[in-house]
Write a structure and sequence with these properties.
Order of helices and strands: HEEEEEEEHHEEEEEEEEEEEEEEEH
Distance between the termini: 116 Å
Number of strands: 22
CATH architecture of the largest domain: Beta Barrel
CATH superfamily of the largest domain: RNA polymerase II/Efflux pump adaptor protein, barrel-sandwich hybrid domain
Strand order of the largest sheet: 1-22-18-17-21-2
Number of helices: 4
Strand content: 25-35%
Largest sheet: 6 strands, mixed
């Protein structure tokens, strides 16, 4: 019993010690944070491009509507019933110069022609009679012993002149009858196509009636507006005088009506004044032979079709070319320097849908960041995409060399 009591008394002290030892060991061996550890900095992976001075030919983008170079209305010069109509004279038909397109009834005009011929014969007979009478009067004057030239009335000069006028009038009437008869046949004035037709077989047309609207197919034209800021980039064809070079910039016309087609043309002239509505200058592009050999195997251009034009502009030398995707808000870009990106304010000289020419804010040798970054702070660390590191190193060496050359030049200037 004493032994059991002793054990109980000892257990009262031993159990708390064991618990304290366990708690102490748990506290001692618990994981502790290393306050000296710093998490790795996450860097953005970027694509870059070393900037170099380039020579680039500008292209001016514009839009316009296809129009005929020559557009005419076919008007009847005489009246009559339509007795012939060529199939080519219907809407959309092609025709050649000199081809008969329409024929009017000639019966009335053939009768008028016969009457005019008869009137001419009568007038000539009347003239011959007056000439004979004048000769007879002169002989009678001389036979009567009169001296000197007989007076005009004796020689029947007024009657002769009147007869001569009658002959001239009869000739004119005959010529008019021949013209009216010939105008019954309407022939094509040029190689062309019918835009729309307003007459058909059996219809009676009057003089000055519009029969159709046609246009020449040798060439078509497109009026293209040019922004005032881009006029200096185009050599406009406005030279006047002999010996002056005719500047006709190349133009590429893009058509998306059925299939995507590209047509080559020239800028042949400019408008004589600024357009009052748009306050812009229009230039005229011309495409030669759009319906002949150039259209084989292609969907041809249509009158009234809306097209896009790329006009070849001047060549600009030693300029920095920056892709549009690297420009933010139209006024700044990011450049790489010492593994960090820095914001650069730029001034754009000219810009199209793909790239911009920078006037100031960047220099040759700097490394442009192409990857879209949004709004990041200058000094943000980045990582260059694999495969571009070599280009960055070369650009850094060029930039360093450029700086050394500039420093040496300034030093030499100070020494001198």
């Amino acid at each position: 019993m004493q032994t059991m009591g002793f054990i109980k008394r000892q257990a009262i002290w031993i159990v708390p010690l064991i618990i304290a030892a366990i708690l102490g060991s748990l506290w001692y061996f618990q994981p502790k944070a290393d306050r000296r550890f710093k998490p790795p900095v996450t860097r953005i992976n970027v694509e870059v491009k070393p900037l170099e001075l380039e020579n680039i030919t500008t292209q001016i983008r514009s839009y316009g509507v296809v129009e005929p170079r020559v557009n005419s209305r076919v008007v009847a010069q005489v009246s009559g019933r339509v007795v012939f109509m060529a199939e080519e004279f219907r809407d959309g038909g092609f025709f050649n110069r000199g081809e008969k397109l329409l024929g009017l009834d000639k019966a009335d005009y053939e009768i008028e022609l016969q009457i005019a011929k008869a009137n001419l014969v009568e007038a000539r007979v009347a003239l011959q009679e007056q000439i004979v009478l004048a000769d007879q009067a002169k002989e009678d004057w001389q036979r009567l012993g009169n001296e000197g030239e007989p007076p005009p009335l004796v020689l029947r000069e007024p009657q002769v002149k009147a007869a001569e006028a009658g002959v001239a009038s009869a000739k004119a009437s005959l010529r008019r009858a021949e013209l009216n008869l010939s105008r019954c046949d309407i022939v094509a004035p040029f190689d062309g196509r019918v835009l729309n037709n307003s007459v058909d077989l059996g219809q009676v047309v009057s003089s000055n009636s519009v029969l159709a609207e046609i246009y020449a197919t040798d060439a078509i034209e497109i009026r293209l507006p040019i922004k005032n800021s881009e006029l200096g980039l185009i050599e406009l064809p406005e030279a006047k005088g002999e010996g002056l070079p005719a500047k006709q910039p190349d133009v590429e016309i893009l058509s998306d009506l059925a299939t995507r087609e590209t047509w080559q043309g020239k800028i042949v002239r400019t408008s004589g004044s600024i357009d009052e509505t748009s306050r812009q200058l229009y230039v005229v592009a011309r495409i030669e032979d759009p319906f002949g050999e150039n259209s084989r195997g292609r969907f041809p251009l249509k009158i009234g079709q809306y097209v896009t034009a790329n006009i070849r502009g001047r060549e600009i030398e030693n300029v920095l070319v920056v892709p549009n995707r690297s420009i933010y808000q139209g006024r700044f870009v990011y450049a790489l320097e010492d593994e960090a990106v820095y914001r650069r304010e730029i001034e754009i000289f000219w810009q199209n849908e793909e790239f911009a020419l920078v006037n100031s804010g960047l220099e040759a040798g700097e490394i442009l960041v192409l990857t879209p970054l949004g709004q990041v702070n200058s000094g943000t660390l980045v990582t260059v995409e694999k495969g571009l590191e070599q280009g960055v190193k070369i650009a850094d060496r060029r930039k360093g060399k450029s700086k050394r050359d500039t420093t040496e030049t300034r030093t030499n200037e100070k020494r001198q």
